């Protein structure tokens, strides 16, 4: 295990060529003009060039400062500013202006707020419905401290997909996601499915942090048992030298095997690959789940 700070050499399949273009520039301008936060940039996502140039972006609400401090995450942490009540409207206007058909909206974790920020997700979903009625809204939410009522409020606003990432296997939570609880994260997905069976749920796992293949298989099984039918599996990349070191680079063939395993145990769609992130090809995943669930 690579427990030292020694950096592993990046394999060739992870070397991404930056793709700019007019759509990229347009989204960049809009983020600046509306003072929006982009998770693509804060999380140092390797697909930023590709997604932005295809006209897809993931927005981040509730500010850009997280109350948690996960060892793999590049989002800044500390004491967040007060909530900007105008943020949902600004994001919705940007989505409308960009003419997105499928928007992904996530947030930092806000343990300082009584409802974990659920009210702002509700406002956001409503604002997008008004400003861009044809746009689907996928929300990738924090665990809301396990507050079922807060989760219910978000579901009642009617997102098209509710996502919550497990990120890693239970054994590694203490090291890389110390303020989260594996079971609580699973319960977000399980409860969501119970409360609103018509809203598909989605989750994501990173590999290369020291987990074993059987631990990944068990986590996938836990997700299926919780009613989750969409999964993203991607390589963990260390954002800076201060973050948790990569333990292993997983080859594309192994991702293909994990994808097959996932489909065999009950996922409708598994997006798996070294550069896959939560919202990668989100629109395609949505279409598949809707088709499979006969909606
Ligand atoms: S809770 Fe989410 S945004 Fe906050 S540090 Fe962890 S991964 Fe990053």
Label this structure with key terms.
globular, 8-stranded mixed β-sheet, binds iron/sulfur cluster, 295 residues, 11 helices, alpha/beta, 10 strands, TIM Barrel
- In total, how many domains does the architecture comprise? 1
Q: Give me the CATH fold name.
A: TIM Barrel
Q: Given the C-alpha coordinates, what overall shape results?
A: globular
Distance N terminus to C terminus? 45 Å
Assign the CATH superfamily: Aldolase class I
What share of the residues lie within helices? 25-40%
The set of bound ligands, ions and cofactors reads: iron/sulfur cluster
Number of helices: 11
3D structure, described in words:
With 295 residues, the protein is α/β, with parallel strands linked by helices. The protein has a single domain (16-292), classed as Alpha-Beta Barrel (TIM Barrel). It has 11 helices and 10 strands. It has helices at residues 22-34, 39-42, 48-53, 87-98, 118-131, 148-156, 173-176, 182-195, 213-225, 252-265, 282-292; strands spanning 37-38, 58-61, 65-66, 76-77, 102-107, 136-140, 161-163, 201-207, 230-235, 269-273. The strands form 2 sheets. The protein has an 8-stranded mixed β-sheet with strand order 1-2-5-6-7-8-9-10, with helices on both faces. It is globular, with a radius of gyration of 18 Å. The termini are far apart. The structure holds iron/sulfur cluster.
């Amino acid at each position: 295990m690579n427990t030292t700070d020694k950096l592993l050499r990046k394999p060739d399949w992870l070397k991404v060529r930056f793709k700019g273009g007019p759509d990229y520039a347009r989204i960049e301008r809009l983020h600046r003009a509306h003072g929006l936060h982009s998770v693509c940039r804060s999380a140092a996502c390797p697909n930023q060039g590709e997604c932005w140039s295809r006209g897809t972006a993931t927005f981040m609400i509730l500010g850009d400062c997280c109350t948690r401090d996960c060892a793999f995450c590049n989002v800044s942490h500390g004491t967040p500013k007060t909530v900007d009540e105008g943020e949902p409207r600004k994001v919705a206007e940007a989505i409308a202006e960009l003419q997105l058909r499928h928007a992904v909206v996530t947030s930092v974790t806000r343990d300082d707020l009584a409802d974990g920020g659920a009210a702002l997700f509700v406002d956001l979903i409503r604002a997008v419905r008004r400003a861009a009625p044809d746009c689907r809204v996928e929300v990738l939410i924090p665990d809301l401290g396990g507050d079922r009522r807060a989760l219910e409020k978000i579901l009642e606003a009617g997102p098209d997909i509710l996502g919550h990432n497990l990120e890693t296997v239970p054994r590694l939570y203490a090291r890389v996601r110390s303020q989260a609880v594996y079971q609580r994260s699973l319960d977000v997905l399980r409860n969501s499915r119970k409360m609103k069976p018509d809203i598909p749920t989605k989750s994501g796992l990173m590999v290369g942090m020291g987990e074993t293949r059987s631990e990944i298989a068990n986590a996938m099984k836990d997700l299926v048992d919780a009613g989750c039918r969409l999964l993203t599996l991607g390589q963990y990349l260390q954002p800076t030298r201060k973050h948790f070191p990569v333990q292993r680079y997983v080859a594309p063939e192994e991702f293909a095997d994990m994808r097959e395993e996932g489909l065999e145990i009950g996922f409708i769609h598994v997006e798996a690959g070294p550069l896959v992130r939560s919202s990668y090809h989100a629109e395609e995943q949505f279409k598949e789940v809707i088709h499979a669930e006969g909606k």
